[in-house]
Write a structure and sequence with these properties.
Blueprint lengths: L1 H12 L14 H9 L7 E7 L4 E5 L3 H5 L8 H6 L6 H16 L9 E10 L5 E13 L5 E10 L11 E5 L24 H11 L4 H8 L3 H15 L4 H11 L3
Antiparallel strand pairs: 1-2, 1-5, 3-4, 3-6, 4-5
Length: 254
């Protein structure tokens, strides 16, 4: 299931499928030192996102201090599953808007912008905190397509305890800034159609757990789990478990 979610999200990022891997990043530390100066300080961690592979090249150990997860527990898939259900639609819309924005920039301006938006993220202890994500391209190809990005997550719960996520494109080196943009709603959450137990099972399915393990985890029979899964398909009008997973992620059902 995790693989299906991963592949669907790569479509949002418009990954160039003909690429196997981006070239090595020369002068890597010098680039990182320069870029880090643009981000606000605070309780934060950073990571390097490989847009070609749709994976992380690096996760800083400080993620444990902020969220309670080790770097090994922070794959792209796991990080997406920790987004608050009500913010999943915004996350997908923001990522699509970022792809559209950078695709219109001339190659020489790609390094002069950072993307900034906030989302609620679940910590290891189950608590949700609001994280400010700021990212900037640190490597692109000759056409301007982003190959690697440096992303910084900062806990801003004390600054913004409530409110909806917002997106901005921040210009650097004299480029204009576009703040709090209106985003076209492509992934609007659906009305509540699933029961609490169905959502509980769906969360475990999204985590890659098979029905037999779900039954053991919830102390119910596998037959009951299978019945709930069939009911979810019937109630949502979805024909397959794979499509159910994709819709759940897009529409923030869990």
């Amino acid at each position: 299931m995790k693989i299906r979610i991963y592949e669907e999200t790569r479509k949002v990022w418009n990954i160039l499928s003909e690429r196997n891997d981006p070239p090595d990043l020369s002068l890597e530390m010098e680039v990182h030192k320069k870029v880090l100066s643009f981000f606000q300080v605070g309780e934060c961690y950073y990571f390097i996102f490989n847009a070609v592979r749709g994976e992380l090249d690096y996760m800083h150990p400080c993620v444990y201090d902020v969220l309670g997860y080790t770097p090994d527990e922070c794959s792209i898939t796991e990080m997406m599953l920790r987004i608050h259900p009500e913010d999943v639609a915004s996350f997908l819309e923001f990522e699509q808007a970022a792809v559209d924005f950078f695709s219109r920039l001339p190659p020489e301006k790609v390094l002069k912008y950072k993307v900034r938006y906030d989302l609620r993220v679940r910590k290891a202890n189950g608590e949700y905190v609001r994280m400010l994500q700021q990212s900037t391209c640190i490597q692109h190809d000759e056409t301007g397509a982003v190959l690697r990005s440096l992303c910084v997550h900062t806990d801003i719960t004390h600054l913004k305890p409530t409110g909806s996520p917002v997106l901005s494109f921040v210009g650097m080196d004299g480029e204009p800034t576009f703040s709090n943009l209106e985003i076209r709603k492509m992934f609007t959450p659906a009305r509540e159609v699933l029961t609490r137990r169905e959502k509980e099972i769906l969360r475990l399915v999204l985590g890659g757990m098979p029905s037999r393990e779900i039954a053991t985890h919830l102390n119910i029979s596998k037959l009951t789990v299978d019945k709930h899964r069939k009911n979810m398909l019937k109630k949502t009008g979805i024909k397959s478990a794979a499509e159910l997973v994709v819709r759940a992620v897009k529409e923030g059902w869990v």
